[in-house]
């Protein structure tokens, strides 16, 4: 599933996600009627930065074990 494929049905205000179509390890963020799905890195962090109760930025930081 492409990360732009998630949409909220405005007639029912529901989000339906088929778990077979999304990455095995991911995060879904909903803010002000917008939905974003991002796959989590195998090693690292995914930071969600908020400002005044709204998602401002999503940042992926990858690393590897030494």
Question: Keyphrases for this structure?
Answer:
66 residues; mainly beta; two-stranded antiparallel sheet; two-stranded antiparallel ribbon; 4 strands; flat
Structure notes:
The protein is an all-beta fold and 66 residues long. The protein has one domain. 0% of the residues lie in helices and 44% in strands. The chain has no helices and 4 strands. It has a two-stranded antiparallel sheet with strand order 1-2. Strands 3-4 form a two-stranded antiparallel sheet. It starts with 25 loop residues before the first strand and ends with a strand.
Summarize the helix and strand pattern as letters: EEEE
- Gross morphology is flat
DSSP strand tally: 4
In terms of quaternary structure, what is this? single chain
Average of pLDDT: 87
Report on the biggest sheet. Answer: 2 strands, antiparallel
Structural class, from helix and strand content? mainly beta
Based on CA atoms alone, the radius of gyration comes out at 14 Å
As a percent range, the share of helical residues equals: under 10%
- The number of helical runs is 0
Uncertain segments are: none
Beta strand %: 35-45%
Structural domain count? 1
Query: Strands of the largest sheet, in order across it?
Result: 1-2
- Note the gap between the termini: 32 Å
